[in-house]
Amino acid sequence: xxxxxxxxxxxxxxxxxxxxxxxxxxxxxxxxxxxxxxxxxxxxxxxxxxxxxxxxxxxxxxxxxxxxxxxxxxxxxxxxxxxxxxxxxxxxxxxxxxxxxxxxxxxxxxxxxxxxxxxxxxxxxxxxxxxxxxxxxxxxxxxxxxxxxxxxxxxxxxxxxxxxxxxxxxxxxxxxxxxxxxxxxxxxxxxxxxxxxxxxxxxxxxxxxxxxxxxxxxxxxxxxxxxxxxxxxxxxxxxxxxxxxxxxxxxxxxxxxxxxxxxxxxxxxxxxxxxxxxxxxxxxxxxxxxxxxxxxxxxxxxxxxxxxxxxxxxxxxxxxxxxxxxxxxxxxxxxxxxxxxxxxxxxxxxxxxxxxxxxxxxxxxxxxxxxxxxxxxxxxxxxxxxxxxxxxxxxxxxxxxxxxxxxxxxxxxxxxxxxxxxxxxxxxxxxxxxxxxxxxxxxxxxxxxxxxxxxxxxxxxxxxxxxxxxxxxxxxxxxxxxxxxxxxxxxxxxxxxxxxxxxxxxxxxxxxxxxxxxxxxxxxxxxxxxxxxxxxxxxxxxxxxxxxxxxxxxxxxxxxxxxxxxxxxxxxxxxxxxxxxxxxxxxxxxxxxxxxxxxxxxxxxxxxxxxxxxxxxxxxxxxxxxxxxxxxxxxxxxxxxxxxxxxxxxxxxxxxxxxxxxxxxxxxxxxxxxxxxxxxxxxxxxxxxxxxxxxxxxxxxxxxxxxxxxxxxxxxxxxxxxxxxxxxxxxxxxxxxxxxxxxxxxxxxxxxxxxxxxxxxxxxxxxxxxxxxxxxxxxxxxxxxxxxxxxxxxxxxxxxxxxxxxxxxxxxxxxxxxxxxxxxxxxxxxxxxxxxxxxxxxxxxx
Length: 846
Known about the structure:
Blueprint: E1 4-5, H1 10-16, E2 19-20, E3 24-29, H2 32-48, E4 53-57, E5 71-75, H3 82-96, E6 101-106, H4 111-114, H5 117-133, E7 137-143, H6 149-158, E8 161-168, E9 171-179, E10 191-194, E11 197-200, H7 204-212, H8 223-233, H9 239-253, H10 259-267, H11 270-277, E12 280-281, H12 288-301, E13 318-320, H13 322-331, H14 335-341, H15 351-358, H16 365-378, E14 383-389, E15 405-408, H17 414-430, H18 435-443, E16 453-459, E17 463-465, E18 468-470, E19 473-478, E20 495-500, H19 504-507, E21 516-519, E22 541-546, E23 551-556, H20 557-562, E24 574-575, H21 577-585, E25 595-596, H22 600-605, H23 608-623, E26 627-637, E27 640-650, E28 673-676, E29 679-680, E30 684-687, E31 690-694, H24 696-700, H25 704-720, E32 726-731, H26 747-750, E33 755-760, H27 775-782, E34 786-791, E35 798-799, H28 802-805, H29 818-821, E36 825-829, E37 833-837, E38 842-845
Parallel strand pairs: 3-7, 3-8, 4-5, 4-6, 6-7, 12-13, 31-32, 32-33, 33-34
Antiparallel strand pairs: 1-2, 8-9, 9-10, 10-11, 13-16, 14-15, 14-16, 17-18, 18-22, 19-20, 19-26, 20-21, 22-23, 24-25, 26-27, 28-35, 28-38, 29-34, 30-37, 31-36, 37-38
């Protein structure tokens, strides 16, 4: 039997059969004075019984506990947000240990900082069970008639003791509403407290007289909704009043003061903010991706020359507030695991367990109903559920590709479509525990920061073409062209990475296809790679949403483009006359017309390149920083089109650096690498400590499993040499998911290197992909990694692997079966320098 504990009021102890160790006691009060009158006898009795007393101070009301050397006081800052606040209190409870007695300030005061009843319920739900587990006794207060029914219900469900405290005509009454595992015939009557005595109000006449003077419990909106409802009326107020309210609402939706906040403040009106809020599910921030998208669109809409309004596709996105992420974790009982994972020792240790749990949790009924309404709004239109974390798409931290986005083709019964949506949301939430995301946060000193996950739900841009859904074109645009392979390229004109169909092929480095790289100062400039075979090194597959199969898939270009009915196909592709003639010769009559995807007419004869160039330039001008934009475009004719800006973020980049003089070497002088162009990362003079070289021929001869092993070995080596200058050189594409195209390293395995080089061999099928604009590109630029591609055998290119392989192979330091791997992987110490001059487009490693 649990030990009995006194409230300090002996008569009331008799009424409720005392408190018990483990009890959380919640008092519903009208004011703090009456709550303090209850706290005082509790504290005095606890001190008399030599109990450890802790006062947790966070409210803005006056202090409830008098200063006393025997009482431990913690001041906890609620302004830091739910996660920091709840974690700090969790850790102080852990520190103070078993059988400690607590007094907490009024939970209602948390509304001053959080503006959300939902989050107060979440806090109590994570705090109360831990206090119970440690056999503490804790007093809490909430103000009557302030919180929603659902918040009170969650508190009632979680706490052991719930009491109403009334002051009527200078008399104090306590009305027990819940007393766990205790019962008496008079326990749940109201009780008049007079000193140490408690008189049960059992007579109907006395009870009705008492309650006639008490405010009835009223249903309330969540405080969040109250604030935004009141803000609507401010649209009729003075500009000064509107500005004050706008600042408050922006702090709730956008986040704390930052460079992005300042830009939003400049461009968003109060009406804009209210419109955003009207499309939010739940409460909390809308996240970086949503903010970036909305800001870019507003900048273009606000253009004084009105250059873009006719070309911008409308959007009708929804935003799942960041508080829902926490609610999901709390409601499913994973908060303690979340706190353990947020420590340095548990950061990686508990990530997989937490990720697996997040993939299988359940959402509260009221949140599910809001999800249903969003789905009903979109009907059967395909949608995409995208991560929009607090730190995403900000200056300095793009998190490009670190979190998941999930297409919902949105076909089937309402129940099936709902399950697809809910599963997509779980997938995005679980991606906060992705290995690459964890590494990214750790390496940038962000692992202790709140990384709440909001979600952006967008209607997919495009149309139905037979059984598939896709936009005509999609891609990534950069306002500053860092990949300058020709001294005549205007860096400030920008660049786009263009694909036919869904934009997944523009941001991922996973397929044996080549996006179209377009320099916007001269869109028809020849491709970066000096190749004769135009068709071979163009896009052959198209990513689409299959309506019939209800999934994201790929189809052949000829099949996709054959079904495009609403615009001339030659805007995007030219008929492959050679293949067409050969098919006819061979007797194939019913094959789709073969095309080469060259975008020739789109780039030469339409306004599209000029409009996208001006859009990028305008957003960059406002940001006062280069930008990276994801877009789609749909056409009715070459000059009648709509561009949809689906994402915008600062382009993580550095300047050109000081000019570097490249020494001239004769043909008789040996070197490792010498090339003209095909590099990015500015001017550098980099001393090389170690070279890791993967031999092309020996790598080709490995089976697929061994090729993956090569990637893991390289990851191990680079981690151990992370404090050295490393030059990584190998065949084809670093970071591909297809081992036949290059070494399939994860970016986290090569993030510590200083320079990478991709060696081309057209004969062996290894071709670097100048992946400007992809997530891989974003990673190497953010990590300040220099990039080069070497087209061995071309004019003005020298590649002499013997310059490195003649040195001792140090691979034995990292692998046991050195003999098997040493022909493929060569690791050597180096005294070389890597030099590049971007103006003259020269690179030398010697």
